[in-house]
Structures are given as structure tokens and as C-alpha cells.
Amino acid sequence: MYSVKEMFYTLQGEGAHAGRPAVFCRFTGCNLWSGREQDRASAICNFCDTDFIGTDGQNGGKFATAESLANKIKSFWATPEGTPYVVFTGGEPALQLDKALVMAMHAVGFEIAIETNGTKPLPRNIDWICVSPKSTTEVIIQKGNELKLVYPQTDAMPEKFNALQFDHFYLQPMDDLIDKPGQTNNTQDTIAYCLRHPQWKLSLQTHKIIGID
Ligand SMILES: C[S@@+](CC[C@H](N)C(=O)[O-])C[C@H]1O[C@@H](n2cnc3c(N)ncnc32)[C@H](O)[C@@H]1O
Ligand SMILES: Nc1nc2[nH]cc(C(=O)O)c2c(=O)[nH]1
Ligand code: SF4
Ligand SMILES: [Mg+2]
């Protein structure tokens, strides 16, 4: 059984594929935060910008089989043109994305991306792996396509990750959910870090800038 918070067709906002049309499938639940505001301060990951509780979002629901979820995802790709692309996110998608769903998505012709915190094993054959380390957690997914670190995090500074095996290293300014002026500092500090350490590139959350999902 797969539990999905929401699904929608939009542009990937972040990282190396920013601007690319994709179906987003947001799974319910995460291993680093309950998702409840009263638990945020004590959570391992405490800056999350996402509501991933329940199945009540747009096109959310429970799916009994990989094939039924794959067919639903396919229904949001509205054109015969291009290679259909799905981004599995959450919550933490590694808690639910399994071999059966990877096979079912490939069977309906999709390329598969994942946005993961890197603390849980992944099934084989995911086409694009984006790992975003959090706080003091151990990153067990040590290779992939992009490492996209939210910056700054006291317990997860870039030096900890710069020797891992990724093709792209991105820093994404922390969207400060409370202190909006603080956000400007995060962006300026991220730019300054990239300029000093050019292994790292800036990733902006462009969907927030242009006002799409
Ligand atoms: C909501 S997470 C879901 C996927 C997975 N649990 C993870 O953390 O990578 C999706 C992406 O948003 C990033 N993110 C979450 N909160 C953010 C914030 N306040 N500012 C900037 N990026 C954020 C995460 O680091 C991750 O790259
Ligand atoms: N447009 C858009 N791009 C995204 N890239 C990663 C997202 C996520 O929440 O995982 C996200 C999202 O929520 N929307
Ligand atoms: S690991 Fe990802 S989904 Fe979980 S709380 Fe952190 S940012 Fe949100
Ligand atoms: Mg998001």
C-alpha cells in the first residue's frame, strides 16, 4: 500500500533539472519529523517547508498496487511529447518507493527521479538521485546525481559532503519559514560560500519565485 499526500504536474523548481516539466508524487510521512508543528523544534529536521501528513492534498490517496499508482501518475502527463518524468518526494520517499513501483514507472515509459534525505536505502534503477543531507544524520546514500544541501545547517556544513560521489553539488538557501529577513542573509551567505568554494553551485527554489506548485 502506497500513501500519497498529493500529486501534480509542474516544473521541477530546484537543482540541475530546474525548469523541467515533471509529475510530482509526494508520499506521506518522514523519518526525521512527524510533520506536526508542535514537534518541529525537537525534530531531527526542523526547517521543513512541506506539509506531508495524510492523503488529503490534490490527487492524494492510497494505492494498493504499484501498477495502480503508476497509471495514476501517467494520467497527469498530459502530452504524447517528450520523455515523461516523475519526481518522487515527500515526506521521505525512500520509506515507500520500492522495486515494484520503479519497475511499474519504467513500464509506463517514465524516467524516475527521487528527492531523498539519504538516510534510507533505495531500490535500484532510479534514473536521477538527489540527496539532501539533514543535520547530524548519517548519509548512507553516498553516490548519486546531485547532492543538494540546504544552507546553512550548523550540523551539516558543506565540508562534510564535498568528497562524496555526486555529479553536481548544490547549496540551496534555507527558506526561513519564520524570519523572512533571515532568508535574505541565507541567500547572500550561500552565494558567498559558492564563490569561495566553486565546487558548489547555487540552487534556488524557483517554483516559489514564480508562484507555481
Ligand atoms: C520537502 S523535502 C522532501 C524530500 C526529502 N525528505 C528530503 O528532505 O530531501 C524536498 C526538498 O526540499 C528541501 N527543503 C525542505 N525545506 C526547505 C527549506 N526550508 N528551505 C530550502 N529547502 C528546503 C529539502 O532539503 C529537499 O531537498
Ligand atoms: N516545483 C517544485 N519543485 C520541487 N523540487 C523539489 C520539490 C519538493 O518538494 O521535493 C519541489 C516542489 O514542491 N515543487
Ligand atoms: S527530511 Fe525532507 S520531508 Fe523530512 S522533514 Fe526534512 S525536509 Fe521535510
Ligand atoms: Mg517543495
Automatic annotation (TrEMBL):
The keyword Nucleotide-binding does not apply. Transmembrane segments: none annotated. InterPro entries: 7-CO-7-deazaguanine_synth-like, Aldolase_TIM, QueE_Cx14CxxC, rSAM, rSAM_sf. One of its GO terms (molecular function) is S-adenosyl-L-methionine binding. Its cofactor is S-adenosyl-L-methionine; Mg(2+); [4Fe-4S] cluster. It is an enzyme of class 4 (lyase). One of its GO terms (biological process) is tRNA queuosine(34) biosynthetic process. It comes from the Bacteria. Homodimer. The gene is queE. This is 7-carboxy-7-deazaguanine synthase. Pathway: Purine metabolism; 7-cyano-7-deazaguanine biosynthesis. The keyword Transmembrane does not apply. HAMAP family: QueE. SUPFAM superfamilies: Radical SAM enzymes. Keywords: 4Fe-4S, Iron, Iron-sulfur, Lyase, Magnesium, Metal-binding, Queuosine biosynthesis, S-adenosyl-L-methionine. PANTHER family: 7-CARBOXY-7-DEAZAGUANINE SYNTHASE. PROSITE patterns: RADICAL_SAM (PS51918). Mg(2+) binds at T50. S-adenosyl-L-methionine binds at F47, C48, D49, G91, S132, P133, K134, Q172, P173, M174, D175. [4Fe-4S] cluster binds at C30, C45, C48. Substrate binds at L11, Q12, G13, R26, T89. Catalyzes the complex heterocyclic radical-mediated conversion of 6-carboxy-5,6,7,8-tetrahydropterin (CPH4) to 7-carboxy-7-deazaguanine (CDG), a step common to the biosynthetic pathways of all 7-deazapurine-containing compounds. Binds 1 S-adenosyl-L-methionine per subunit. Belongs to the radical SAM superfamily. 7-carboxy-7-deazaguanine synthase family. It catalyses: 6-carboxy-5,6,7,8-tetrahydropterin + H(+) = 7-carboxy-7-carbaguanine + NH4(+). Residues 17-213 form the Radical SAM core domain.
